Known about the structure:
- This protein has about 525 residues and is α/β, with parallel strands linked by helices.
- The chain has helices at about 5-10, 35-50, 70-85, 95-105, 115-135, 150-160, 185-200, 215-225, 255-280, 290-300, 435-440, 450-455, 465-485, 500-510, and strands spanning about 25-30, 55-65, 105-110, 140-145, 175, 205, 240-245, 310-315, 315-320, 325, 345-350, 360-365, 375-380, 400-405, 410-420, 425-435, 495.
- An 8-stranded mixed sheet has the order 8-11-12-7-13-14-15-16, with helices on both faces. Strands 3-2-1-4-5-6 form a 6-stranded parallel sheet. Strands 10-9-17 form a 3-stranded mixed sheet, with no helix packed on it.
- The mean pLDDT is about 95.
- 6-O-phosphono-beta-D-glucopyranose binds near residues 179, 209, 247 and 266.
- The site of 6-O-phosphono-beta-D-glucopyranose has 4 residues, from loops.
Amino acid sequence: MPNDAAVSSATQESAPQAKPAGPCAMVIFGTAGDLTKRLVIPALYNLTTSKLLPDDFALIGVDIADLSTEKWRQRLTDMMQSFVAGDGEFQTDSIDITAWKSLLARMTYVQGDFATDATFARLGDILQRAEQVHRTGGNVLFYLAVADRFFGPVAEKIATTGLADQQDGKRWRRVIVEKPFGHDWTTAKALNARLLKVLGENQIYRIDHFLGKETVQSIMAVRFANGFFEPIWNRDHIDHVQITVAETIGVEHRGRFYEQTGALRDMVPNHVFQLLTMTAMEPPSSFDPDAVRSRKNDILSAIPPVSLDCAVRGQYGRGEVMGRSVDDYRHEPDVSATSPVETYVALKLEIDTWRWAGVPFYLRTGKRMSKRWTEIAIRFRRAPLSLFKGTNVAETHANWLILQIQPDEGISLQYQVKRPGQTVTLSPIKMSFAYKDWFPPQSNVGYETLIYDCMIGDATLFQRADMVEAGWCIVQPVLDAWASKQPTDFPNYEAGSSGPAAADRLIADAGGRSWRSIGNGT
Ligand code: BG6
């Protein structure tokens, strides 16, 4: 808990409030889908209650589902009520009825097929009406919350029907593209080329929801706002870095999607690489979006494509997760009984830069693991032992800096102290900071900042075309090798465990390192 009065009072002061975004309309394609319901609408509600949504705002939902504006509003109201005291991402004890009603009043539903011009013509009329009724200034944010096969076609229809036209800067038109952005390097390049034929790069906002997580955003602040990290943040002082994204969930109702995707595609070139670039990037010259994104891209471009001997795949078998028996992956709905798809991946990467040469980055992510836990762990080189000659100290423990991303958000530093007493013995201890002890909790599903940033035209937290392609390029050799050689040992880790034994060998190979235990902070 905070106990220093001066520091404590500084954190209790309310942060300067951001201004509401300027007038605009938002169009959600795929409005009847899960993403819209679970995350986008709650995020818009949170932006309403925190007064960041403009007063001059209209929300238009487009989907094939047979709904009317009234029915759509009612559905969303029922859904918001079901969240009260529920256990979804959006957690609330009560809904602010005034805020919700003000959002409802701005909603219009457009029923239509994404493939037909008529849908877009109708949408164009509704946007014009919104410009008059809700004074949106003609600015429009299109959100493609649709299956990835629609990204190209919908963007093309937006453009060919004139809806992407920015009228020489008199109004803005932006498009948020969800993940998965491509299925591999080739398809990602093709999708970029297709989008860039009809939209400018500065109109495309490729979303990665990990960048909406407060603690992910704060990595840069922690690194660059504190003078003492930078001098030791390099190969001279860091032994290696471990990034863990462990989930307890299985594939839930997404078996069909997951069978085409697997853990590597689903998590690594996007979410895990976001954590990696935040950790490894050089200081940008400013917070200008392109300054930040270029430094991240420098890191991705400096990582050689991963070779097969630096990659481990796993698939979960039956087991017990958080006290509950669960089935193996091959018995999940819509999953083949002989599926070769990986639900776990571990990689060892090198970054060929002056700062990082020779410092391995170990990444692992998996489903049905022992605990939900995301952290970036930086292990420093050991101190030389010579000072302790003639004492009881036979070895010094390593120092770790842990950036905890979720579910607990905070930072801890592990180092050693002398145990009280007459002999010299050392004990590892931990100095911890937890966000929840210092700052009031905020209702946040992770999409608020991303949507708001897009409305104000700040692309810092969005992926540029080159970054997406560089990410895929790194993992492509592994995707190719795994596709051509079926695994013979699946399932190879028990649900509720910390992953396959081969991953332990991957990290131990290089001088006896080992993975940190998942979720107990040691
Ligand atoms: C999604 C993946 O992008 O991220 C899911 O498709 C994964 O498989 C999810 O579960 C993890 O995100 P979060 O925010 O729940 O950690």
